[in-house]
């Protein structure tokens, strides 16, 4: 599978302070909690669409409890030929939307309980999609490890979204820093 023109779509959790030691004695009302694995998280999600080089093309911000697949349409611009995504986007309405738009569907598939046939083909497909989709994860690594943005700084989605939009623009500059150095020389 060779990805020429497409988007890699993914989301990451951004923690928010869950403390109630403030003037209102309440947690941030725009943030919510969600369960990932056996761990509960309180905060927001940053949904990102990246191009084939891993550069961020579109961002959306929601509370943590919003499922990933509900934000897919807002992340797409309409010029994609292929969409790669993890299993969080494996829903019939997502596959139907991509088919109607004429976009090649490369969403990782879930194994359903009781499924006995086609497991090896499913694993091969998911492994190929994951190897390509890994480039889209680099933006999250730079955001959280290089820039240290693991927890929200403000109350509300609007302020945190504005800061994250700026940070994702800086992530793009960080990811192309070597190419920018060659342009200067």
Give a short summary of the structure.
The chain is an alpha/beta fold and 185 residues long. The chain has helices at residues 72-75, 92-101, 119-146, 157-175, 177-184; strands at 6-15, 32-36, 39-50, 56-63, 82-85, 104-107.
Describe this structure in words.
The protein has 185 residues and is an alpha/beta fold. The protein has one domain: Nucleotidyltransferase, domain 5, CATH 3.30.420. 37% of the residues lie in helices and 23% in strands. GO terms for molecular function: DNA binding; transposase activity. Keywords: DNA recombination, DNA-binding, Transposition. Residues 1-33 are annotated as: Disordered.
| Quaternary assembly | single chain
Identify low-pLDDT runs: none
Beta content comes to: 15-25%
Give the count of structural domains. Answer: 1
Q: Overall mean pLDDT score?
A: 89
List keywords for this structure.
37% helix, alpha/beta, DNA recombination, six-stranded mixed β-sheet, globular, 185 residues, Nucleotidyltransferase, domain 5
């Amino acid at each position: 599978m060779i990805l020429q023109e497409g988007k890699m779509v993914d989301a990451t959790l951004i923690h928010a302070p869950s403390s109630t030691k403030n003037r209102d004695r309440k947690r941030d009302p725009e943030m919510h909690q969600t369960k990932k694995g056996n761990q509960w998280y309180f905060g927001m999600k940053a949904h990102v669409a990246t191009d084939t080089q891993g550069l961020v093309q579109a961002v959306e911000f929601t509370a943590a409890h919003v499922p990933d697949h509900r934000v897919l349409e807002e992340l797409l611009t309409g010029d994609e030929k292929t969409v790669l995504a993890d299993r969080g986007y494996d829903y019939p309405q997502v596959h139907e939307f991509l088919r109607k738009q004429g976009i090649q569907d490369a969403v990782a598939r879930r194994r359903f309980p009781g499924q006995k046939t086609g497991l090896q083909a499913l694993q091969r497909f998911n492994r190929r999609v994951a190897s390509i989709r890994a480039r889209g994860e680099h933006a999250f690594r730079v955001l959280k490890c290089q820039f240290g943005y693991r927890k929200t700084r403000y109350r509300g989605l609007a302020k945190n979204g504005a800061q994250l939009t700026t940070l994702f623009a800086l992530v793009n500059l960080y990811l192309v820093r070597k190419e920018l150095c060659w342009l200067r020389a």
